[in-house]
Design a protein that fits this description.
Largest sheet of chain C: 2 strands, antiparallel
Order of helices and strands of chain C: HHEEHHHHHHHHHH
Strand order of the largest sheet of chain C: 1-2
Number of domains of chain B: 1
Largest sheet of chain B: 6 strands, mixed
Strand content of chain C: under 5%
Shape of chain B: globular
Distance between the termini of chain C: 49 Å
CATH superfamily of chain B: P-loop containing nucleotide triphosphate hydrolases
Chains: A mainly alpha (about 300), B alpha/beta (about 250), C mainly alpha (about 290)
Distance between the termini of chain B: 33 Å
Oligomer: heterotrimer
Largest interface: A-C, 86 and 87 residues
Number of strands of chain C: 2
CATH topology of the largest domain in chain C: MetI-like fold
Strand content of chain B: 25-35%
CATH class of chain B: Alpha Beta
Order of helices and strands of chain B: EEEHEEHEHHHHEHEHEEHH
CATH topology of chain B: Rossmann fold
Shape of chain C: globular
Radius of gyration of chain B: 18 Å
Radius of gyration of chain C: 24 Å
Number of helices of chain C: 12
């Protein structure tokens, strides 16, 4: 017969153990993702993988009968082009909206705008892709007088709309984190609000704003369905924003279904997955370190 | 009147938070059924001492504790069963804390955590605790309202009732009057005078005169060290041995 | 004495134009959203009806409704929630209540951020490699739900952690002071007071999981599967299923000659589901703020 006290001790121990295991589950899953993606791609990676050809050849012919070639340079260029276009739009608009919401409006309007931005963030990527395919495509054809509207520009615009909510919400957070005493001190000196934003808040919040932009880039690089639908599947280095492109993510999504399990083609797609994982890992790590740097500066633990 | 063995004996207690020392080898003893007043300026380590006594210092990960604290002869720094220890020591924090539960559940929280669930046992206990804390008459008709909805002074008495609910041997109060009005303060002081017959009370206070009114003996702690511990009358008279004690009780600094 | 100098007038003009530019930027983000949604609803209007929701696609998915996809999404979402919620909540409890400030905690935090940042298609590769192939579950609702659960775990962890840390420290101290154990404190005081915040996290998880396509594409979702109309238990755990997001992808790219209104209708159903779920979570948040207990 165990006493109540022993029972409390035992159950406390059990619960704590379960909680600790779940606590480190995030680490387990991140390692698991790397491990299992690596595991599926390992066969190719260690026997036939030629890094130079892989990264620097534009020839992507995974299903050629006579001479299969796996060069992803053009696909990297595709990802890079849509990301650059997306960021060109999303950074000014995102930061502008963050500043407007954080500094220039109050009360009800602020709440409503934040909710709308949240809605923007909630739209599923496949719906964005659908918008690119059905709404933006004809628009681009009409406006630029081109035969196909499924282009890097189309994907870039869609991606920018997807990245903006991230930039706005994290940017706004980092502006909010600037102590009010800075604002009061600046206003007391008789400068205008815009000068305060430009001279005081932006420098004070610059790390947070940088992290916001980085996470936006991460989102743009990793987005799959939207670019799959909106950029028009052409493996080529784009000469202009009005060329069709193919991104790393879209390549996996489009070809994995047709590649026989265990084939070279299948394994190469997992190698691309490792590459994507590494890129986003570095981006997120950098953003994390930047944000942590801010906390250390402020003396929080 | 004075027992041979002190209730709590603190010796050579050193506590530091990271590199910041909070207590630098403090030694003092608390006798049975006395009110020990502990006075001293802010940041002198008084709250840290209380946190060591009920081992909630464990939850501050940067804290390092050395020395010994004997409670009824056993070193509490080495005890495994901190929860039973805490049930022997009631603790009242500076700011009143009404838990977001009903008044009844607030007081019943500790007994229930200890395994008492029978309403027949709980009801009289809760009435007794609220009576002792001089709150019963004000709340007896609304025991199911939220504890957080009470006024500050009522919440502080609720906190005391909760601290009494596990029938402790020692009641520690940490600057209990900091957030409440003088009238409530006087009522609680009366409560403490009555409780003295049943338990030992450690009263950390920022009000020098409060220690003078209530304490049997008073300790002056400054900068992590015990400057002087003596009968309250001595501390508050010219007989105090240390000049700093005289200066502090006379309001020269602090 | 307080007269404007030309310099001040210039400064105020700059201020005004800066404000206008920022306002325009914000409006330019919002307006297209509203226009596009309106346009989509207009385009979808010919098919939107209860029948559309409750019948299965016919004629090679060129006619009929979306019932199997709707039910499949429901299965996937609920199952992924059942897996992610307990793990996520406990992970948040660990981070907020137990974890000390050491390298392990920092690594966990970093892992949570990373997990949220991993591209959805990489989650798909993981789900395929780990659940479908390695664990041998095969392409199924279970495998897809597991993949979705891993992917949405950070949503639950982050929002739960936030609601836990909103419970004042003094409440915990008060409980510890009367001899309650850590878990008794968490169960008695911390969890009851953060439950609505957690609920917001669950709802957000639902919205995320319902919209995702890539992670389920290779782990359990199929283009077409015939199931009985009106039978809510039509799918088994190890069956493959249709899903709204996948269905939208299929009929807008893979099937030729689909009448325009069908994909628009599917998109509107998916969009309104996700937005409605989000609206609920926002409403809940406002409600929580309005009735704080302390």
């Amino acid at each position: 017969m165990i006493t109540r006290k022993q029972w409390t001790t035992v159950s406390e121990f059990l619960i704590e153990t379960v909680i600790r295991i779940c606590g480190i589950s995030a680490i387990i899953f991140v390692l698991g993702i790397f491990f299992f993606v690596f595991r599926e791609g390992a066969g190719f990676l260690f026997s036939k993988w030629e890094p130079i050809k892989f990264f620097f050849s534009t020839e992507w012919y995974p299903t050629s009968v006579s001479n299969k070639r796996y060069g992803i340079l053009a696909i990297i260029a595709g990802t890079a082009s849509v990301t650059v276009i997306a960021m060109t739009i999303a950074v000014p608009f995102g930061l502008g909206a963050a500043i407007f919401i954080s500094e220039f409006c109050t009360g009800k309007l602020k709440e409503i705008l934040k909710i709308l931005i949240e809605f923007l963030a909630a739209i599923p990527s496949v719906v964005w892709g659908f918008i690119g395919l059905m709404v933006m495509n004809p628009l681009i054809i009409d406006i630029f007088n081109v035969p196909i509207g499924l282009t890097a520009l189309n994907g870039g615009i869609i991606l920018s709309l997807m990245a903006i909510p991230i930039i706005v919400s994290i940017g706004e957070d980092s502006l909010k984190a600037v102590p009010d005493s800075y604002r009061e001190a600046a206003i007391a000196l008789g400068i205008t609000k815009w000068q305060m934003v430009y001279r005081v808040l932006m420098p004070a919040a610059k790390n947070g704003l940088l992290a916001a932009v980085l996470l936006g880039v991460g989102r743009a690089v990793g987005e799959t369905m939207a670019v799959l639908l909106a950029t028009g599947h052409a493996v080529q280095i784009p000469g202009s924003p009005l060329d069709s492109v193919r991104t790393l993510t879209a390549t996996i999504a489009a070809e994995l279904g047709e590649a026989p399990v265990g084939s070279d083609h299948y394994q190469v797609l997992f190698v691309i997955g490792i590459f994507l994982f590494t890129i986003t890992f570095v981006i997120n790590l950098t953003a994390y370190l930047i944000v942590k740097g801010i906390r250390v500066q402020k003396g929080e633990s | 009147m004075v027992n041979s063995q002190p209730k709590i004996q603190v010796s050579g207690l050193q506590v530091s938070y990271g590199k910041e020392p909070a207590l630098k080898g403090l030694s003092l003893d608390v006798r049975d059924n006395e009110i020990l007043g502990i006075i001293g300026p802010a940041q002198s380590g008084k709250t840290t001492l209380l946190k060591v006594i009920n081992r909630t210092i464990d939850y501050i990960s940067s804290a390092r504790v050395t020395g010994s604290v004997l409670f009824e002869g056993k070193n509490i720094l080495e005890t495994k069963d901190v929860h039973s220890l805490r049930r022997k020591i009631g603790m009242v924090s500076p700011l009143p804390v009404g838990l977001p539960l009903s008044i009844y559940d607030n007081v019943a929280f500790a007994p229930r955590a200890a395994g008492i669930r029978d309403r027949k046992k709980l009801d009289p206990l809760i009435e007794q605790c609220l009576q002792q804390a001089a709150l019963w008459d004000e709340v007896k008709d609304r025991l199911d309202t939220l504890g957080t909805k009470l006024s500050g002074g009522q919440q502080q008495r609720l906190t005391i009732a909760r601290a009494l609910s596990h029938e402790p041997d020692v009641l520690c109060l940490d600057e209990f009057s900091i957030a409440i009005d003088p009238v409530t303060t006087m009522r609680i002081e009366d409560v403490l005078k009555e409780l003295k017959s049943k338990m030992t009370i450690v009263l950390v206070t920022n009000l020098v005169q409060q220690a003078r009114r209530l304490a049997d003996r008073t300790a002056f702690v400054w900068n992590g060290e015990l400057i002087e511990l003596d009968d309250t009358e001595t501390i508050f008279s010219d007989a105090a041995k240390d000049q700093r004690t005289k200066d502090y009780v006379n309001g020269v600094f602090g | 004495m307080f007269q404007e100098t030309p310099y001040i007038r210039h400064k105020l003009r700059v201020e005004k134009s800066a404000k206008t530019v920022f306002l325009l930027m914000t409006v330019l983000i919002i307006i297209p959203l509203i226009m596009i949604v309106t346009y989509m609803v207009y385009k979808a209007s010919p098919v939107l009806s209860m029948d559309f929701l409750l019948t299965k696609p016919t004629n090679g998915m060129r006619q009929g409704g979306i019932w199997p996809a709707l039910l499949g999404t429901l299965y996937l979402v609920l199952m992924s929630l059942c897996i992610a919620a307990p793990v996520g909540v406990m992970a948040a409890i660990y981070l907020n209540e137990y974890a000390k400030d050491n390298w392990l905690t920092r690594t966990v935090n970093l892992a949570v951020i990373n997990l949220a940042g991993v591209p959805s298609i990489v989650h798909a590769l993981f789900g395929l490699g780990a659940f479908v192939i390695f664990a041998g579950i095969g392409r199924s609702i279970l495998a897809a739900a597991l993949t979705l659960a891993v992917m949405t775990l950070p949503v639950i962890i982050t929002s739960t952690k936030e609601s836990l840390s909103a419970v004042p420290m003094s409440f915990r101290e008060a409980c510890w002071n009367v001899g309650a154990t850590k878990w008794q404190t968490i169960r008695g005081i911390v969890l009851p007071n953060s439950v609505s915040g957690m609920l917001t996290g669950f709802i957000l998880e639902v919205s995320r999981a319902a919209g995702e396509t890539a992670p389920i594409m290779f782990t359990g979702a199929v283009f077409y599967k015939a199931i009985a109309e009106g039978d809510v238990f039509a799918y088994g755990l190890l069956d493959q299923c249709m899903a709204l997001s996948m269905h939208l992808f299929t009929i807008s790219t893979q099937v030729p000659n689909v009448p325009e209104a069908l994909p628009y209708g599917t998109a509107v159903v998916l969009l309104s589901t996700v937005l409605a779920v989000n609206a609920i979570s926002i409403g809940l948040r406002v409600y929580i703020r309005s009735r704080k207990k302390w």
